[in-house]
Specification:
The chain is α+β, with helices and mostly antiparallel strands and 269 residues long. The protein has one domain: Nucleoside Triphosphate Pyrophosphohydrolase (Alpha-Beta Complex), CATH 3.90.79. Helix content is 25%, strand content 24%. The strands form three sheets. A five-stranded mixed β-sheet has the order 6-3-8-7-10, with helices on both faces. A three-stranded antiparallel β-sheet has the order 5-4-9. The longest helix is centred in the last third of the chain and has 19 residues. It is globular, with a radius of gyration of 18 Å.
């Protein structure tokens, strides 16, 4: 059993400004645009995505206990059997309680061009993202702050780790379109309401938009018709309890949804 240090996590905090501004995307440099040609697993990824695949993620048993580490390529390529690893999904809401979505960049190895929640990634197998001060949750929050900056250009210091409110964990496994890549994760669900400025990285994000609950349900309906795509973890979260958590969050009752004991499991895991 892992100990979550969540005391005081639900104290209200003032917003940092109400204006939300999207800056002009940075142009692709040559390191982003070049496609790798060859016979290796990473040869068809662009250089930046290939570099990120060498980062080491946290391998887990079914109870979320750490059992080792592996590179992202060894934990996400189907030929490696998709070992279970730790992840997080951040849901950012603005002052109107609209959810920020991103469409994953077309150069991503997994689920390219899919719509998903605000930010989804992995804590790395490094001290500050494993269990700093004995808190697994703080490690996940630290990783989430890092990736909000990396993917969406959120300025350093704009989000404190403790502002990311933990809800639960989900366990799922899914293969991307061609079956070459996939995910097998215990995913920490984190909510935050805050108005922020964004400068999305074009190597990570193709598009962003805020949606109401009704608008998001329309997107899921369009996905059922094959007119758009949403990531499997996002669908699992929203189909199970995500919309009710959203309502509770808006009502100031998110603490009623927190589960630090159980792991929600989806599919054949």
């Amino acid at each position: 059993m892992i100990g979550f240090m969540i005391a005081g996590l639900y104290r209200s905090r003032p917003f940092v400004g109400n204006a939300l501004r999207f800056n002009s995307p940075k142009p692709f440099g040559s390191r982003h645009a070049v496609r790798r040609m060859g016979t290796g697993i990473l040869d068809n990824l662009d250089d930046e995505q290939a570099r990120l695949m060498e980062e080491r993620v946290i391998l887990l048993d079914r109870d979320d206990n750490v059992i080792g580490s592996a590179t992202k390529v060894d934990s996400h390529h189907a030929s490696k059997q998709l070992p279970l690893h730790r992840a997080f999904s951040v849901f950012v809401f603005d002052s109107q309680f609209r959810m920020l979505l991103q469409r994953r960049a077309k150069v991503k190895a997994t689920f390219a061009s899919y719509w998903t929640n605000t930010c989804c990634s992995h804590p790395l197998h490094v001290a500050e993202e494993l269990s700093p001060g004995g808190s697994t949750l703080r490690g996940v929050q630290n990783a989430a702050v890092r990736k909000l900056s990396h993917e969406l250009g959120v300025k350093e210091g704009s989000v404190a780790p403790e502002e990311l409110k933990y809800i639960t964990r989900i366990h799922y496994k899914a293969y991307s379109d061609q079956g070459e890549w996939g995910e097998h994760e215990i995913d920490y669900v984190l909510f935050i309401q805050k108005d922020l400025e964004y400068d999305p990285s074009p190597n990570e994000v193709d598009d962003v938009k805020f949606v109401t609950a009704s608008e998001l349900k329309d997107i899921f309906d369009q996905a059922k018709l094959g007119k758009t795509k949403v990531t499997p973890w996002f669908k699992h979260i929203m189909d199970s309890s995500g919309f009710s958590w959203w309502e509770k969050f808006q009502a100031g009752q998110l603490q009623d949804c927190v589960d630090t004991v159980n792991i929600m499991r989806f599919g054949d895991v």
